[in-house]
Amino acid sequence: MDLEAVVSHLLNIPETIPTYMHPSRAAHGTKENQGASTIPVDILDSAKDYTFFLDVPGLSKSDIQVTVEDENNLVIRSNGKRKREDGEEEGCKYIRLERKAPQKMLRKFRLPENANVGAITAKCENGVLTVVVEKHPPSKPKTVAVN
């Protein structure tokens, strides 16, 4: 049993969730991902959509790009950096810098087949990025007449 299966079993995660809960393995080990921070994410699965919540303090909505690549990979990236507030008086300087300014961010998620990649919305409010991916309605069974 691999680590993902063990964690899913221990946490009693339904079988369909790991397909989009774990980031796409394609992002690991690439030059594009070097130096990128992996921001924790919460993913909510509701009847109508999948909702991703990421904390992005200090980044504005113009710093963040949300795209779909290779038909079913949700990609969230940012090259933005938080600007430090400068003192208005001459001779002002920081005596302590504890808040780490975000580096570039890159997260990739493989979306399940029922995700409607044509219906994705994103908003950034109060330091939280919320990405909503609507689901396709469940297909109704098709009955075929037997001749």
Jot down its keywords.
elongated; mainly beta; 7 strands; 147 residues; 4-stranded antiparallel sheet
Give a written overview of the molecule.
8% of the residues lie in helices and 33% in strands. It has two helices and seven strands. The strands form two sheets. The protein has a four-stranded antiparallel sheet, with no helix packed on it. Strands 3-4-5 form a three-stranded antiparallel sheet.
Task: Indicate the topology.
Blueprint: H1 3-10, H2 18-21, E1 41-45, E2 49-55, E3 64-69, E4 73-78, E5 105-110, E6 115-125, E7 128-135
Give the overall shape.
Answer: elongated
Number of H/I helices = 2
Question: In order across it, which strands form the biggest sheet?
Answer: 1-2-7-6
Distance between the termini: 47 Å
Helix content, binned percent: under 10%
SSE pattern, N- to C-terminal: HHEEEEEEE
The major beta sheet can be summarized as: 4 strands, antiparallel
Q: How is this structure best summarized?
A:
By secondary structure, the chain is mainly beta.
